[in-house]
Amino acid sequence: MNTPFPAEQKTILRREIVARRDALSADWRASASALLCSHIATLPEISQAKSVAAFWPLAGEVDLRPLMENLSATGRCIALPVMTGETLVFRAWQPGAALTRKPFGVMEPDAKAAVVQPEVILVPLAAFDRSGTRLGYGKGFYDRALAGAQHPRAPMTIGVAFAMQEQVALPREPHDQPLRMIVTEAETIRVAE
Question: How does strand 77-84 pair with strand 99-101?
Fold first, then answer.
C-alpha cells in the first residue's frame, strides 16, 4: 500500500477532523469557546499586547467574539484578517463595526479600516499537534501571512482550537509556519523553540 504524500494526508485529515468538530453540539461548542476565551484572556502575552489579531468564526470554529469585545473594551487594538490576493493583512475592527462576507464565508472589516501589525495573532486551524504544527483549511493564507510578517519582532502566534482537534503528529511541509502556542478549552500548550 502506498503512503499518501503530505498534501493528500492533509486533505484526508482535514476532512475527518472538521467533520468530527462540526458534529459537536452548538451548546458544547459555545461552552467550550467561553472557557477557551477565558484561558486566552489570562495569558501574559495577551495582557501585554497592544494589538491582537483574531478571527470571526466560521461554522463549527471556536467563537472568539466575546474575547474580542472584552479586549477592545480594555483599549486593545483588535484586528481581523482580510484576504488580499494570496495572503492576509490584518485590519482594525471594533465591536459593532460592519463586516462584509467574502469568499469561503470569511467576515472581513471594511477595506478603509486601518492596517494593523499585530503583536499577537490568534490563528484558526483544523488540527494541531504538540510540536506546533498547524493544519489549516488548505489555502495557505495564514502560512504566507506569517512567513511575510514584518514587525520589529515576529508576532506571537497562538493556535486556537478545541482539544478534540489535537493529533499525535501532523505532516509538515516546508511552507508550513509553526505555532508558538496552542490554547484549547482544556489546556495551554507552549511549544519549545
Answer: unpaired
